[in-house]
Amino acid sequence: MNTLIVPTDFSTIQEAIDAANSGDTIEVLAAGGPYTGATISTNDLSLKGTGNPVLKDSVNGFLLNNVSGVSIEGFTIQNSVHGINIMSSSNNTIEKNTVKNNSVSGVSLLASNNNWIEKNIIENNSVDGINLASSNNNTIETNTVQNNSVQGIWLSSSNNNTIEKNTFQNNSIHGITLASSNDNTIEKNTSQNNSVSGVTLASSNNNMIEKNTIDSNDLNGITLMTSNNNTIEKNTVQNNFLNGINLLVGNNNWIEKNTVQHNGSDGVGLERSGNNSIEKNTVQNNDFDGIELEGSHDNALEKNTVQNNFFDGIQLAGSDNNALEKNTIQNNDFDGIELEGSHDNALEKNTVQNNGFDGIEIVGSDYNSIKKNTTQNNGFDGIEIEVSKHNTIEKNTAKNNGFDGIELEVSLNNTIEKNTVQNNGSDGIELEVSDNNTVEKNTALNNIANGIEVASTSEQNIVFKNTSLDNDNIDLVADPNTNTVANNVCSTSDPAGQCVGGC
């Protein structure tokens, strides 16, 4: 195990490599540079730069070809085609180098496994900062990768790699891109100010994206396209130009415990995506909706806090069979939850409060179940059902809303049962131009206008066994000639004589 010194013992790095044996150290002094590139084909060599020697103007700064156990530390590699090119090589360490201004990539791995790329500065390269192709089980850690003309880091058909504690910034496309790459870990990185997205997965599965800061990218924070079974957890995703997290045709992904805030469009957006779990996230202060599902089915949204977004808290458009449970949706400028053209969804045990318009709005949406929610202090209605049919509104509490507790407009065959509606700014329950609905066993108390009102434009409804008391105007308004009205407890009715226990 000898130490060979360049330029003391050899005038070029290549001469020293050719003379070295496995286990030797080659020390390169800055004073003899700049140097041309070198090819390494001997295992277990250590190359150390002293004083930051420069390699430049070569096809490869360093080419590692079918070697293992090589370490390269302390060099500046610049103005070549490839900075450091690793081919069919394993168990090598690239550490504390500056790799810049190369005409292709800074560091490239092809069919290379179990390498360690650490604490390098990789910048201003004409293609990618770091490129992995068909390379597995590598660790990319604590690098600064910036101002590259394409990607910060690109993985293609590369699996089980760890990308950790790096900074990817100001790259001309994505900060981090995975294409057809599976089972990778992307953890504790900062990806910011990239010209497209911070992190993009395309046709990539079973990856972990955890504890990253994704900030101020020019498109989305995190984008998944045709990618399944990935986990996006405990990230801070903020100040991106469009969506914070965007899934396009992605299934069975887990989005949990993220903070998604101050993005220019939606906080979390799903398009044509199914069977995803969105749980325990804080989604706030985004310029459009907090969470939007478009053409997406069988997703679970649970225990999220969705607040202070400029439009709706949660919006479903053309999205069916989703479950929204135990979310807190508050202080959004438009509706808390809006369903538009969405069917067979279940909304249960949500708290929807202090939103600018309706707490829950259902438009052109059928066969939905709205149960055990609390809708309170919203600017308009607690729950509004419009041009919708066969929905079940059961065991909800709608109180202190600016207008009605529950309103049906141009809606048919819905069931409103066992709800408590109180202290609302207009009616407790109102049906307008709505037929064949059932209003049963509800409690309507202390509303500013009527307790329950079935407008004259609504017919063939069943109003049965409700309790409507202490409302400021009339407790029960319903025409028994065009509706079935029976066994309601109230003090006042129009027409008179329809109350039991007080009229």
Automatic annotation (TrEMBL):
Q: Which Pfam families does the UniProt entry name for this protein? A: Beta_helix
> What is the superkingdom listed in this entry's lineage?
Bacteria
Q: Which UniProt keywords apply?
A: Repeat, Ubl conjugation pathway
Cite the annotated pathway.
Answer: Protein modification; protein ubiquitination
Query: Where does the Carbohydrate-binding/sugar hydrolysis domain start and stop, copy by copy?
Result: 20-156, 157-317, 318-455
Record protein name field: Right-handed parallel beta-helix repeat-containing protein
Where does this protein come from, organism-wise? Answer: Chengkuizengella axinellae
Lineage here is: Bacteria, Bacillati, Bacillota, Bacilli, Bacillales
